[in-house]
Amino acid sequence: MKAVGLAWYSLYTRTWLGYLFYRQQLRRARNRYPKGHSRTQPRLFNAHLCPPGVKVLPIPVLSDNYSYLIIDTQARLAVVVDPSDPQAVQASIEKEGVDLVAILCTHKHWDHSGGNRDLSRRHQDCRVYGSPQDGIPYLTHPLCHQDVVSVGRLQIRALATPGHTQGHLVYLLDGEPYKGPSCLFSGDLLFLSGCGRTFEGTAETMLSSLDTVLGLGDDTLLWPGHEYAEENLGFAGVVEPENLARERKMQWVQRQRMERKSTCPSTLGEERSYNPFLRTHCLVLQEALGPGPGPTGDDSYSRAELLEKLRRLKDLHKSK
Ligand SMILES: [Fe+2]
């Protein structure tokens, strides 16, 4: 990270200036998007079964973040992932008529954890989960890799995925108890066709974290922390212009975004087909971005080097 970026990141994460910046972003977004930045649809799994199933409700917050309410519809218990705007999350809790029993934080950044204080004060028995390495505000229940949080029939496994922050966790809702697909709440590790910036780790760290989620099933639904699909697929087209899966997904995403509809969720199977950050093993990317044949004819980047180069190119692409 460049010196200016590093200084800003330290101020954002380690001082009250970061919190004040978040509060300003919150006020601006509430004024600009009184009904949220995107139109979202809840996903109901096996509602017709007895006992009924599980509901995932994306809540659009700030200018492009998502919080997620995960509801056991039989017990009427809910957990929320990354509640950055407590007002928007509370409105959804009241509309659904559920009890909030847990907050799951993927990482410490205010746009993911800023609502912890208000929600945990309002819901007295609400537990706050996250990594103890990440300085999550109002954390009550520290989690380690592979720990499971149980709420009613919800079984949610924490997976350590450092790189964006040192203690970044993703959460995997097991689909087995409600006979549906598993759901991955990926915070700022993985987005539709993109991945988060490596603020607190190396390219090797980030690659290892991406490989952790690559090991999950193709039908796993991906619920990311931000609505970045259109921009990310645009970048993927620069590095892999011949990829037809990307082209098809881009056409669908553009139709969705014209009506301000959310693009969540995609599946991990889809992501494998077009997300360049999950394709560092592919020859086509190595040929496009690698150093090319050297004197011995066998020069190539390691997957971590390729990931690092992709990340640099993506940052340049965004700043254009
Ligand atoms: Fe973040």
From TrEMBL:
GO cellular component: mitochondrion; plasma membrane
Subcellular location: Cell membrane; Mitochondrion
GO biological process, one term: negative regulation of neurotransmitter secretion
Membrane topology type: Peripheral membrane protein
The keyword Cell cycle appears for this protein: no
Keywords from the named record: Cell membrane, Hydrolase, Membrane, Metal-binding, Mitochondrion, Zinc
Signal peptide: none
Cofactor(s) the protein needs: Zn(2+)
Catalytic reactions of this protein: a thioester + H2O = a thiol + a carboxylate + H(+)
A Pfam family of this chain: HAGH_C
All copies of domain Metallo-beta-lactamase, residue ranges: 64-226
Entry's Gene Ontology molecular function annotations: hydroxyacylglutathione hydrolase activity; metal ion binding
PANTHER family named among the record's database cross-references: BETA LACTAMASE DOMAIN (PTHR11935), HYDROLASE PNKD-RELATED (PTHR11935:SF116)
NCBIfam families with a match to the protein in the record: GSH_gloB (TIGR03413)
Protein role: Probable thioesterase that may play a role in cellular detoxification processes; it likely acts on a yet-unknown alpha-hydroxythioester substrate. In vitro, it is able to catalyze the hydrolysis of S-D-lactoyl-glutathione to form glutathione and D-lactic acid at very low rate, though this reaction is not physiologically relevant in vivo.
Entry similarity comment: Belongs to the metallo-beta-lactamase superfamily. Glyoxalase II family.
Record protein name field: Probable thioesterase PNKD
Organism per entry: Panthera pardus
Taxonomic path: Eukaryota, Metazoa, Chordata, Craniata, Vertebrata
